[in-house]
Write a structure and sequence with these properties.
Elements lengths: L28 H4 L9 H16 L6 E2 L2 H7 L8 E4 L3 E8 L4 E8 L7 H13 L8 E5 L6 E5 L6 H5 L11 H20 L5 E2 L8 E3 L5 E3 L6 E2 L8 E2 L11 H6 L1 E2 L1 H17 L15 H9 L19 H14 L10 H12 L11 H6 L8 H7 L4 H9 L3 H26 L5
Parallel strand pairs: 1-5
Antiparallel strand pairs: 2-3, 3-4, 4-6, 5-6, 7-10, 8-9, 11-12
Helix pairs in contact: 2-4, 6-8, 6-11, 8-10, 10-11, 14-15
């Protein structure tokens, strides 16, 4: 049973088997063998990359091997004016490959950074062996001497963070439809890693700065240096050193080091909340009670009357009220404290497909702004809930039993409790889908 029955189409997409092999690879060991990567000596590091890629890739690593000189030419000797980003791995430069005139993004390893040879190798293997429209394409790499450089396809619109959390002056904010489209695509990237890769791959670093956008705002996941192979057989998690970005890590992973695909689902919930609210997961510039996004949102998510207070002000009330309620419900499910009660990412994708492609019954989008302009109450009260949630069975019961405004408030509170119970029931049903 889906965690989001209201968002599931009549012909439910058949869930792909977790045991389904990736068609491109005849030997699953190609992907599994790099879990034991280790470096014994400094001298071994220099020759290790090329040898291991040849051995572990078993001929499937088709990414081009660049010389360092070629990449110096492509980036004009890594000119600072060509730098388009910087992260824990190192700096990213825009460049042009001379022979093909292909525009690329060149990421050079910072030798003093957080990621090293092992992360470099993992990323090359992951992106060479796994291919999906919502995963960034690895053009090639350089492992010449001490140099560790990755070459990606160039993404014209940068990362989601730049459009959502670091909006430059004069840049137009993302509208609601584009935000839902980005969330849907990013979730599909995770779905591919969790349910088509064999064994499953846990991304472990899902955040806005790792979601890249092409010229049409189609999202692609990048930065796979922290990716980890997920549990196989009857195992439900793998134990590993806690890594990732503070605020995005699932509570059970942060406290015990137990990692599962549901850890990625939690991180998705955090980013989806950022997409809806326009707030950073950790923002020390805000009042103390608002600095942690998840803690700030938790009490608001329990009261549907306050849902509109959570919408990004930059949306200027131009969003479908019903769509906002459903989006926040998805985020709340992903942010459940217990991993077992979170939905599978495939259920999240199904719900987001519904939201991203949904059209209002009356034509166009019935937004908070248009509702207010027609004389309605835009404060998220019971009247607004009844108007915009007319297909909610519990709200229909409220309409039949309305006697006075006090009764309306009591009924609304009761409905919220029933809604929560419904989600809990769906969570229990969803346990049947877990391996």
């Amino acid at each position: 049973m889906s965690c989001f029955p209201c968002c599931t189409s009549e012909e439910r997409i058949k869930k792909r088997s977790l045991k389904k092999s990736i068609k491109q690879y005849h030997d699953a060991k190609v992907l599994t063998s790099f879990t034991n990567i280790s470096f014994k000596t400094d001298s071994g590091k220099r020759r290790f990359i090329a040898e291991e890629l040849a051995k572990l890739g078993k001929g499937n690593v088709t990414s081009k091997i660049f010389t360092y000189r070629e990449l110096c030419v492509a980036t004009e000797n890594f000119q600072p004016t060509n730098m388009i980003g910087e992260g824990g791995f190192g700096r990213v430069y825009k460049g042009t490959i001379k022979n093909t005139n292909q525009i690329v993004a060149v990421k050079a390893l910072d030798r003093n950074g957080f990621q090293g040879n092992r992360e470099f190798l993992v990323e090359v293997l992951i992106l060479s062996l796994l291919h999906h429209p919502n995963l960034v394409n690895l053009v090639g790499y350089c492992a010449e001497g001490d140099q560790r450089v990755l070459v990606y396809e160039y993404m014209a619109n940068g990362c989601l963070e730049e459009h959502l959390l670091d909006l430059a002056p004069g840049r137009k904010p993302l509208d609601w439809k584009t935000r839902m489209k980005i969330a849907e695509g990013a979730a599909k990237g995770l779905e591919y890693l969790h349910e088509e890769a064999n064994p499953p791959v846990i991304y472990r670093d899902f955040k806005a700065s790792n979601i890249l956008l092409d010229e049409n705002y189609n999202p692609k996941l990048s930065d796979f240096g922290l990716a980890k192979l997920g549990p196989t057989g009857e195992k439900e998690h793998v134990s590993t050193r806690v890594m990732g970005t503070y605020g995005y890590c699932a509570p059970e992973y942060a406290s015990t080091g137990q990692l599962s695909t549901k850890s990625d689902v939690y991180s998705f919930g955090v980013v989806f909340l950022e997409i809806i609210t326009g707030r950073r997961v950790i923002d020390n510039s805000r009042p103390s009670e608002e600095q942690n996004l998840v803690l700030w949102a938790q009490p608001l998510l329990r009261d549907r009357k306050k849902f509109t207070q959570m919408a990004d002000p930059l949306l200027e009330d131009k969003y479908p009220i019903k769509g906002l309620y459903q989006a926040l419900a998805i985020a709340a499910m992903c942010l459940q404290e217990e991993a077992d009660t979170r939905p599978l990412i495939s259920d999240v994708v199904t719900a987001l497909e519904f939201l991203a492609n949904k059209k209002e019954e009356d034509g166009g989008q019935y937004t908070k702004e248009t509702f207010a302009s027609q004389g309605g109450n835009d404060n998220g009260n019971d009247e607004a809930n009844v108007v915009h949630d007319d297909d909610d069975d519990d709200d229909d019961d409220d309409n039949e039993e309305d006697e006075d405004s006090d009764d309306d408030d009591e009924d609304a509170d009761s409905d919220n409790d029933n809604d929560d119970k419904g989600h809990s029931d769906n969570d229990n049903d969803d346990k049947g889908h877990r391996r």
